[in-house]
Amino acid sequence: MPMYKVKPVSPGDIKIDLPTCMYKLPNVHAQRMNCGEHALQNGEVDPALKALEERQDEVLRRLYELKATVDGLAKTVTTPDADLDASTLSRGPAEAVFRGTADLDSLLGKDLGALRDIVINANPGHPPLSLLVLHALLCQRYQVLSSVHVHSSVSVVPPPLLSCLGPRHIDSYVRQRFQLGFTLIWKDVSELQMKFNTQSMCPIEGEANVARFLFRLLSAEPQDPVTVTQMDSWIDTAVFQLAEGGSKEQAVTLRSLNSALGRSPWLLGQEFSLADIVCACCVLRAGLNTSAAANVQRWLESCQNLGHFDCVYPLLQ
Amino acid sequence: MTKENVQGAAEEEQQAQSKKGLKKQQKEAEKAAKKAEKQAKLAAEQQEADEDDFAKDRYGICPMVQSQQKLDRALVRVQDLTPEKAEQQIWVRARIHTSRAKGKQCFLVLRHQQFTVQALLAVGERASKQMVKFAANLTKESIIDVEAVVKKVEQKIESCSQQDVELHVERIFVISQSEARLPLQLEDAVRPEGEGDEEGRATVNQDTRLDNRVIDLRTTTSQAIFRLQSGVCQLFRDTLINKGFVEIQTPKIISAASEGGANVFTVSYFKTSAYLAQSPQLYKQMCICADFDKVFCVGPVFRAEDSNTHRHLTEFVGLDIEMAFNYHYHEVIDSITDTMVQIFKGLRDRFQTEIQTVNKQYPSEPFKFLEPTLRLEYKEAVAMLKAAGVEMGDEEDLSTPNEKLLGRLVKEKYDTDFYVLDKYPLAVRPFYTMPDPNNPKYSNSYDMFMRGEEILSGAQRVHDAQLLTERAMHHNIDLEKIKAYIDSFRYGAPPHAGGGIGLERVTMLYLGLHNVRQTSMFPRDPKRLTP
C-alpha cells in the first residue's frame, strides 16, 4: 500500500478528441493495459533495434579506420622523413641519362597520322633559353621538325631570335618524315605558353613547366623520387629566386649553387640533368656568370663543353 | 381659311428661307473674315520678313553649276578641320548629315566621306531669323557650300569625327539639293544589328541597301570597306611587282569552258556563241609557256553557279598568280603566302582607321597570322578532325562545316586565321593538277584558308602534253575542246604552279564580315542584276 495517495484530479475515462495526423501516445491517465510494454524497460531488446545498433557500430568502426588512414597520410606529407624509411628506397644506379630513345607513342599518345607538333608561344622580350637547350637535346634523339614563326601581334623580332632553332632541315617540306614537331612562335604574350594536344590537354604555362614536359620526352628523368624532388627544388629555386628574385636572393642562390657544386660535378651528383640546364640558363640570362664563384664558373664551362648550350650564347648579347 | 393657312405657311417658308439664308450669310461672312485675317497676317509677316532680312545675300540656293564661272576659292576638306585652323575663315563643301533647329540656333552636322563636323548658325548680327529657318529646312544629303569661321571647342564633340572644332557659319549656299524623302536613312544604315533590335531603332536590311547602293555607299562603314579593298589590290600589285612579276590582261570572251561546262555564261558572238571566262587559268599558263616566268592578273571572273550563299557571287574580281619554279612547287607556295602576309601586314599597319570604322558597325576579332605562314598537310588535317570526332574518309574532300571546324582547331592551337593545307587527294582536284610523285592517290595541290573559309585553290600544273591528255581522258573531258590548251605544252613548258584569290572574299574575311555582298560595290548574284 503506497504511503501517500492523491485523489484523482480528473477521471480517467474522459474522451478527448485527439488529432490523428502525427504521433499517438497512450493515455497516461488511463489504466495500464499492455504488460508487454514492460519488456523494453526490463532490458530485453527488440531485434530490429539490435540490428540498427549493430549497423551503427559497423559504420563508426569504418569511420575510425578512415580517420586513422588519413592521419597516417597527413603525417607522411608534413614530416617526410618521419614515417618513410629512406633506407628501404632502392638507390639503384642513377638512370643512364639521355641514352636510348623513348617510345613517343607511350609518352604522347598514339600517332593518328598527324605530326605531333609542340607549339610554344614565347615573348621575344624574354626568350626561353632552357627550352632552346632542350630543343637541341631533342634533335639528337628524334627527328624533329623545327620552325620559327612571328605572330601578327609582334611587329619586329631581332634576327638572332628568328634563327635560334638552327638551320632548316633539308627535308622540312615533308612533314610526314618527322617524329616530332617543335614550333616556336614569337608572340605578344605575358607568360610563356605551350600547346600540344588541344583536345585533351590544357595549355602549359611557364618556362619551368614546359621544360619539365620536354625533359620527360627525353626519357631521362631520374627514377629515384628523392633525386626527382631535388631536381624540382633546384628548378624552382632557379626560376623564382635567380630569374625573378632581387639581388639578395640571387646572391643567396649563387652561394648555395657554389656549395652544391663543390661536392659534385653536377647539381644532382654525377649526372647532368634538367636542374643543370635550367639553373645555368637562369644564371646566364641574369648576367651573373661573370661575377660568380669558382665552382659555378667551372660548372658553366662544363655545360658549354657539352655542346648543348651553343644556341644560347648568341642570344645573350 | 386655307388661304390664310397657305399664306401663313408661305410666310413661314419665307421666314425659314431667310433664316437659312441668314445662316449662310453668316457663315460666308465668317469665312471672309478669316480669310481677310490670314491675308493680313501674311502681309504682316511678309512685311516683317522683307523688313528684317538683312542677311538675304548670305544664303540661298545656287543656280545649277554649269561651269558658269571660275571662282578662285579654296575649299577645305572636312578632315582637315583641326584646331590648327582656329579663327580662320574658310569655305567648306560637304553634305548635310543632319540639321536641327533650336529656337534661334540651328545645328548642322556636315559630312564628307568618313568625316563629320558640327556647324552652328545662330540669329545675330550676321544671320537673320529667315536664314536660320532656311538652314533648318534644308533636306538631308544636300550638298552645300559653307563659309565659316573655325572655332575651338572646350568640350569634345563626341558624335563627330572632328571632335575639337566647330564651324560658325557666315554664309550657306545649296549646290545640289536632295529630295526630301530618302529611301534609307544613313544613321540607320550604320547602326550595328544588335543595337537596333535592343533600342527599337531601325536598321536597314541588305536588300534595301543593295537596291539603293548609291546612298548606302555614302556611309562611313562602306567608305572604309572599299578603301580597304582598294588597299588590298594595291598591296597585291606592289608586292608582286617587287618580286619581279609581270602584270598581264587575259581575254574574258573565250571559246571553250575551262573548268568544266556547267558553270559558264554564254554570250552570242556574231554567228556563233562564246563564253565568259571562269578563270584566267589557261591564259596564265600559256604566258608561262611563253617565258614570262612570273605573271599575275587582276580582272573579273564569271561563274554561273546558281548558289545563293553568303560567299558566292556570279561576277567577282579575281587576283591570280602563276609562277614557274626551279625544282619544287613549294617555292611557289612560299611566294604566294609571302605575298598574302605582306598584304595583311600592310593592312594592319596602314589601314587601322578603316578597320576600326568597320568594327564599330560589325565588331569582330582582329585578323591574326604567322610569318612564315603555317603549312599543314591534308593527312594531318584529317587526323585533327578525326581526333575532334568527325568521321571522314582519308581521301574525302573537306566539306564546308569541316573546313570551318578545322579552322577553329588550327586557331586554337596556333592562334592564326590564315594557313595553307597541302597535298590534297588527287580525286577531288581538276584534271590539270600534277599528281604526287610518291603516292598516286595524292596531288601537289593546296588550299589556303582565312578564318576557316577557303580563299585560294592552287596546284602544280601538269606541264607535259601527254600526261595532260591522259588526265583529261581520265576525267572524261572532250579533248577537242581543249586542243589549244594542250598544244601550248608541246613546245617546251617549264614546271609551274599558281593560284587565285577573290578580292571581295579576302576583304570580307579579313574584316570578319559575314556576307560577300558587303564587300562588292554592285554585287551580282543569281537574283540581282542591277544596279
How would you describe this structure to a colleague?
With 317 residues, chain A is of the alpha/beta class. Chain A is built from 11 helices and 5 strands; from the N terminus they run ααααβαβαβββααααα. Chain A has a 5-stranded mixed beta sheet with strand order 2-3-1-4-5, with helices on one face. In chain A, a hairpin with an 8-residue loop joins strand 4 and strand 5. With 531 residues, chain B is of the alpha+beta class. Classes of the chains: A alpha/beta (317), B alpha+beta (531). The interface between A and B is medium-sized, with 24 and 30 residues.
List the helices and strands and how they pair.
The complex is a heterodimer of chains A (317) and B (531).
Chain A: H1 38-41, H2 47-78, H3 80-83, H4 104-108, E1 116-122, H5 129-141, E2 144-151, H6 159-162, E3 180-186, E4 193-195, E5 204-205, H7 207-217, H8 225-243, H9 247-263, H10 274-285, H11 294-306
Parallel strand pairs in A: 1-3, 2-3
Antiparallel strand pairs in A: 1-4, 4-5
Helix pairs in contact in A: 5-7, 5-10, 8-9, 8-10, 9-11
Chain B: H1 2-52, E1 59-61, E2 75-76, E3 89-102, E4 105-112, E5 115-122, H2 129-136, E6 143-152, E7 165-176, H3 186-190, H4 193-199, H5 206-211, H6 213-216, H7 220-242, E8 246-247, E9 253-254, E10 266-269, E11 272-276, H8 281-289, E12 294-302, E13 315-324, H9 330-350, H10 352-361, E14 370-371, E15 374-377, H11 378-387, H12 400-414, E16 418-422, E17 445-450, E18 453-460, H13 465-474, H14 483-487, E19 496-502, H15 503-511
Parallel strand pairs in B: 1-7, 2-3, 5-7, 8-12, 15-16
Antiparallel strand pairs in B: 3-4, 3-6, 4-5, 6-7, 9-11, 10-11, 12-13, 13-19, 16-17, 17-18, 18-19
